[in-house]
Amino acid sequence: MSAPNSSYDPVAPSALDEAAVRAATETAEAAIAAAADLEQLKAVRIEHAGDRSPLALANREIGSLAPAARAEAGKRVGAARGRVKQALASRQHELEKERDERVLLEETVDVTMDYDRDPVGGRHPLTTIQERMADIFVSMGYDVVDGPEVESEWHNFDALNLGPDHPARSMQDTFFVESPDSGVVLRTHTSPVQIRTMLTQQPPIHMVAPGRVFRTDELDATHTPVFSQIEGLAVDRGITMAHLKGTLDHFAEQLFGEGLVTRLRPSYFPFTEPSAELDLQCFVCRGSSVGDPDHPCRTCSSEGWIEWGGCGMVNPRVLRACGIDPDEYSGFAFGMGLERTLMFRHGITDMRDMVEGDVRFTVPFGLEL
Length: 369
Ligand code: DAH
Description:
The chain is α+β, with helices and mostly antiparallel strands. The chain folds into two domains: 14-106, no CATH class; 125-356, 2-Layer Sandwich (BirA Bifunctional Protein, domain 2), CATH 3.30.930. 39% of the residues lie in helices and 18% in strands. The protein is built from twelve helices and nine strands. It has helices at 18-34, 38-49, 54-61, 67-106, 125-138, 153-156, 192-200, 241-256, 316-321, 338-346, 352-355, 359-362; strands at residues 143-144, 150-152, 184-186, 205-214, 226-236, 262-269, 272-281, 305-314, 330-337. It has a seven-stranded mixed beta sheet, with helices on both faces. A hairpin with a 2-residue loop joins β6 (262-269) and β7. α1 (18-34) packs antiparallel against α2, α1 (18-34) runs parallel beside α4 (67-106) and α2 runs antiparallel to α4 (67-106). The longest helix has 40 residues, at 67-106. The protein starts with 17 loop residues before the first helix and ends in a 7-residue tail after the last helix. It binds ligand 1.
C-alpha cells in the first residue's frame, strides 16, 4: 500500500471530524443543561442548533466530502444534531413545567382570605377638631351649647348690636330664608348662641357653641358658603379681659402645644367693647422666623403670629338686650373659624378639600375619637 497522497486524497474538513463533532455536541448539551430559564434556552438554541451553529455548519460541509465519506459523516453529524435537538426538547419541557408551577404558586388566590367589604371611612377633621376644642372647654367647666342654623334676624344681628343699617346685614353676606323681609336668615356666625344662652340662663354662664354658619361666598380655595365656627362666652361678676386672655392662652396651649400664647390687637365688633383681634403665636416657629430670611416659616409666613379669631368684653348693650344687668355682671366672648384653624394646623391649602367629603382627604387624619 502506498503512503497517503496528501495532495490527492480528500481530507475531511476539521468541523466534521469525530472529535470536533463530539466536542460541539458536548458543549451544546452542557449549555442546554445550564440554561436556567426559557429565555436562556432560547439563546442556547440559536447558538448550538441554529443556522450558524457548529453542527449546522458541519452538516453543510458534508456535501463537499468525497462520496465515500459522506455516509459516515452524515450519520455522525445527523446523530449529533439529533442528540442536541432531543436535549433541547427535554430541557424546554422541564423549564416550561418549572415556569408553570412557579406561576401557579405566585398567582395563587386565597379565596378564603378575609377582605374588607365595608372599608371604614374617616371622621371628618372638622368634627374631630370641634370635639377637641369643646373638650378643652368642658375641662374648664364650660357647657357645650347648640343653636339653630336657621335663625331670626333679631338673634343673629339686632341683639348683638348690629343695627338694621349694619353692612353685614346686606344681601351680599346673608342668606335670607324666603324673602329679605322674612326676618329669618341662615346664621352668619355662631354669636346668636350667646344671645340664646343669656336669654335662658342666669350668670354665671360659661359656654362654647361650635357649629355651622353661612355666608353668600362663592366656593373657592379660601372661601366656602358653609363653614364652621366656635363661639365662647363667660358672664359673671367681675369678669375682666385678664380672664379672657388667660382662657385663650390655655386654649391655645391645649390645642397647639405647651407654652404657646395668644396676642390681642385692638379691633371693632359691635357686640364687644373693647374688641380685639386674636392672634396665635406660631406653633411651628414660635416667632423665630421673624427677620430670619434663611429660615422662613410657611405656617405664619414668617410673621410669628397667625390670625385666629375675634374677641372682647361683651358689650353692655348686648347684656342688656338679654336682660342681664351690666352694672352687676360683665363677660367676655370670642369666636374663631374651624376651617381656618384646620388649614393652618394641618397645612391644608384648599378649602374645597374640607367640603367635598372625599374619604381620601379624611382618612389620613385618622380615626381619632
Ligand atoms: N362673630 C364674629 C365673626 O363671625 C367672630 C367674633 C368676634 C365672635 C368677636 C365673638 C367676638 O364672640 O367676641 O366674625
